[in-house]
Specification:
about 300 residues; mainly alpha; globular
Length: about 300
């Protein structure tokens, strides 16, 4: 009897272990883009038109899935206060967040406040921000917005969109970045990645950023706007690339109308993953504590 019970317990333990292993494997497969059979079926099955209600439900499910994949999603610009975030966001135009993060330590060491930056010699400011490109135009914007902060807002970055967009070089996108991440005011940030993905997912057909923002805001509750922006941008930079999306390693492949535009083979797709998903450093020199990847290298180390 004891032997029989022991055998039963062993069999039960083996079954439990097998079930746990299967669950882990299933979760890994989901993060990698789902089972190959499901993908093969999707590859030959065209996306069917859907009602607005169905689209909204699918969009919200995508957001929930991305929240599981990127629980650490965050703004990828280094900053310690609203002024630093504002400046960094202006500098991020037409360059990478990494290049901005490698440039701003020297910039803020020399000009830590709006008053300091407003008094900067243009040629000295230009030389510091030269690595970010378009440095003359950006220097002009930084000098202008710093002077406006000093003269109009008491040296403080305002916490209202209507005030922020009056600053030189600051549009609605930059204002939403600052409001959402420095002041906790919800907002949708429509950058290149965000616009590209929401059109790819058929959440909108709009091209104009303000119209995209309005349509996406109507799909999601206000409390989700800022984090949704981060998750979509993270996904666009890591998996859903512009020219060759890693469809075979995508966790939302079954929900994507554009599945098959990129590499569908799981192994080949995994080689396309970027940043922490591909085992490489992120864009921040000082990432949040919960970031699973490694920090980026400072400027001049040969790793930028």
């Amino acid at each position: 009897m004891a032997k029989t019970a022991k055998t039963a317990n062993t069999a039960k333990a083996a079954k439990t272990a097998k079930t746990a292993k299967a669950a882990t494997t299933a979760k890994t497969a989901k993060v990698a883009g789902g089972e190959r059979a499901a993908k093969d079926e999707r590859a030959v099955r065209p996306w069917k038109p859907e009602s607005r209600l169905a689209m909204v439900r699918r969009a919200r499910k995508i957001n929930r899935e991305l929240a599981e994949v990127y629980p650490y999603a965050h703004p990828e610009l280094d900053f310690r206060n609203p002024f630093e975030l504002l400046v960094a966001t202006v500098l991020s135009a037409q360059t990478t967040d990494l290049r901005v993060n490698q440039t701003t330590p020297a910039l803020f060491a020399k000009y830590p406040t709006p008053e300091d930056m407003a008094a900067a010699a243009p040629e000295e400011l230009e030389e510091i921000i030269r690595p970010t490109g378009f440095f003359r135009a950006k220097a002009k914007s930084l000098l202008g917005l710093s002077a406006a902060l000093r003269d109009t807002f008491g040296g403080q970055v305002p916490g209202r969109l209507e005030d922020l967009v009056t600053l030189p070089g600051v549009g609605r996108k930059t204002a939403n970045v600052v409001l959402g991440n420095a002041f906790g005011v919800p907002g949708i940030t429509v950058d290149t990645h965000f616009g590209r993905l929401v059109r790819r997912w058929k959440w909108t057909e709009q091209e104009d950023p303000e119209k995209v923002e309005a349509e996406i805001c109507a799909i999601f509750p206000k409390s989700e706007w800022t984090m949704l922006s981060h998750r979509v941008v993270f996904h666009g930079r890591r998996i859903c690339h512009s020219r060759k999306p890693a469809c075979g390693a995508c966790p939302i492949a079954p929900l994507c109308p554009a599945y098959g535009e990129g590499e569908t083979d799981p192994e080949k797709a995994r080689k396309l993953l970027k940043y922490e998903m591909g085992g490489y450093p992120g864009q921040r020199l000082a990432p949040p504590p919960d970031y699973p990847g490694s920090p980026a290298a400072p400027l001049g180390t040969g790793d930028e």
